[in-house]
Amino acid sequence: MKNVTDSFVYLGHWPSAGSFGFNTDILATNLINLSVVLGVLIFFGKGVLSDLLDNRKQRILNTIRNSEELHEGAIEQLEKARARLRKVEIEADEFRVNGYSDIEREKLNLIDSTYKTLEQLENYKNETINFEQQKASNQVRQRVFQQALQAALGTLNSCLNNELHLRTISANIGILAAMKQITD
């Protein structure tokens, strides 16, 4: 039994040729791995992210243009309503004697409905812009997360082969066996 544990202990203490060897300091290796993964993510992800942001920017600009066109349509409707208002005012002067209060009420209703329509269109434009901005932000976050995860998995899969995996497991078993032998 002692020969088996000795063989694991020797696997954990392979002689290093030059500067090659196993670094058992978990904190140092995690920092190195993290910095490598972040470097790869930044290098490969910045082009994709800028393309996504450019595409999203164009969509938002198109939405803003569409909203501005709606706004211009509302202004045209307002001008038509003002023309109708002028017409109603002229008719009001002609029929002031017979139905001043009815005409005045119609005028106020027309003004109120026009302003309400304009406010609704303005609110719709603002809601559309806010919705598109939130949607763009969420899509960018989701795509960045997916790409970062894919890049990290690709990096891990390309760096970890079966031989290295088995050697790492064997070395760790040897270290654990040595620690058990010291505690016994």
Question: Which features does this protein show?
Answer:
single chain; about 180 residues; mainly alpha; 4 helices; chloroplast; plastid; CF(0); hydrogen ion transport
Task: Give a short overview.
This protein has 184 residues and is mainly α. Helix content is 90%, strand content 0%. Helix 2 (26-94) runs antiparallel to helix 3.
How would you summarize the topology of this molecule?
Elements: H1 2-12, H2 26-94, H3 96-159, H4 162-183
Helix pairs in contact: 1-4, 2-3
> What Rg do the Cα atoms give?
37 Å
Helix and strand composition category? mainly alpha
Order of helices and strands: HHHH
Distance between the terminal alpha carbons, to the nearest Å? 14 Å
Low-confidence stretches: 3-17
Describe the structure.
With 184 residues, the protein is an all-alpha fold. It has a domain at 32-151. The chain contains four helices and no strands. It has helices at 2-12, 26-94, 96-159, 162-183. The longest helix has 69 residues, at 26-94. It is rod-shaped and about 115 Å long. The two termini are 14 Å apart.
